[in-house]
Amino acid sequence: MGDDALHSIRVKLKCLDRNEYEELNFGHLFPDENSDIQKLFKEYETEAADWYVKRWVFTGLRLTSFPEVVYDVIISVEGDKVKRQYNPMIRDRRRSDSGRYKVSDRYGVWLCKDFMPIVRVNDWISGFGSGSNATTLLHAFVNCQSLRLTANRGTVANTDPQILEELKRAIQDIISDVDRHIQKEGIYTLREWQDEHRTIHQERDEYDRRVRSIRSRKVQSSWAAPFRANK
Q1: Terminal Cα-to-Cα distance of the chain (whole angstroms)
Q2: For a Cys-Cys bond, which of 24, 64, 112, 118 suits 11, CB 3.0-4.6 Å?
Q3: What are residue 85's phi and psi, to 5 degrees?
Q4: What is the SS3 assignment for 57?
Q5: Rg (CA), the chain
């Protein structure tokens, strides 16, 4: 998505407290796909879901009732450790660093114009995933040049409501397909395997603990037996 002709443009920024300029990379960073759940579980076991990445890209889609409205969609489902690996601006859970943000503050589905995020629309996909924070798995953007922005480019409120409603339904259909995939053979499958793996290890540890306890009681009883006999 976007215009590769702009790839040659170089943008350099310098913060007020810095002496050197920093060159910004072209485009938006997405992590490499890593969605083979068998390999992930074999390598990471109980952390496998945190390293899962699966991407869907749709270009040149059109609304049924408004065929002149064209939109592009990119959806990346990403585990927590993957996000933190490529995005240094995510705040550590135990800290409140100034200038950084929580995953829940940024991730989800964004409407874009000119390939720039305008407004997040997580409320469009409230039924996605499992749990209240499921939308944070999504690193997703919907670009539509037919969106009409307010003067400050802060919302899409000037867009025809019928166009927005049909775009919303179209995105919901796409997200539903993504949801079915990750529930059946994706990140949620890994989470189920992880829970089973933890349960097996917990049961094994509990069994070993009970065996040690029984053996310890037997040893104590065998040492105490002669003293009881002499009384």
Answers
A1: 89
A2: 24
A3: -70, -40
A4: strand
A5: 26
Instruction: Return the number of other C-beta atoms located less than 10 Å from residue 41's C-beta.
Output: 19
For residue 148, what is the DSSP state? Answer: -
d(CA 11, CA 189): 42
> Are the C-beta atoms of residues 110 and 141 closer than 8 Å to each other?
yes
Once rounded to an integer, what is the mean pLDDT over residues 155-166? 97
Closest Cα to residue 117, out of 58, 74, 180? 74
DSSP assignment, residue 153?
Answer: S
Query: Residue range 84-97: average pLDDT?
Result: 82
Distance CA 136, CA 219 (A): 54
Q: In what order do the strands lie in the sheet with 138-144?
A: 53-62, 70-78, 138-144, 108-113, 116-120
Token pair 């990140």 is at which residue? 187
pTM of the predicted structure, to 2 decimals: 0.79
* Residues 39-57 pLDDT 10s: 999 999 989 999 999 999 9
SS3 call for 141: strand
8, two tokens? 């040659």
Contacts of 230 (CB under 8 A, 6+ apart): none
HSE-CB for 46 with a 13 A CA cutoff: 8
pLDDT at position 36: 94
Neighbouring residues of 106: CB distance < 8 A, sequence distance ≥ 6:
90
